[in-house]
Design goal:
This protein has about 180 residues and is of the alpha+beta class. Helices cover about 25% and strands about 25% of the residues.
Length: about 180
Amino acid sequence: MDLFPKLFPELESLRRWKLPLPDHFDVCVDPRMSFKELVHWAGFDRVSGLTGFDSLKRPWPEIYPAKGGKPYVRRFELLQLCGDHQRLDLDEALAVLAARGYRPADAREFLSFLAQYPHRQRRQHDIIPLGAVYQEEDRVYVLEVFDRPNEREYRLVYLLLRSRSLRSYWLSHHRFLATRLDP
């Protein structure tokens, strides 16, 4: 069932006629939904890892339990944090977001965004919610939309960001889902 027309009737005509979409996205988030329901609603069958290092000791529903509370709507943007020939690690990306007056989307907001704006998944390169970072011992993981159009590969993954021997960076093609901090 497509909930988009009911939740955002003013954007339905833009989608139907394939007109340009705004730079911001109003996302309805229901904190009562389970992580499994959110993954399914976003159009994925599961969350997968990319390498053997991506295995977690705890399942995702335990990491992101249903919070409860009332549904809310927030305005999100997809931000590019670095230019060509630059790279940012996790701490630097979070610092840049904070300096610009944004907070990163969490896992629920990210999956709700993917469900309500499915076409954005295939028009952007990798989309990352830095608020969905999870730490387990010396490893740091984050959810990400892994999009490789030339390989026709498109999936929701958890990515190992950092460990004692491995350090990850984001480049100019990455987009970060974030919302403005309340004044």
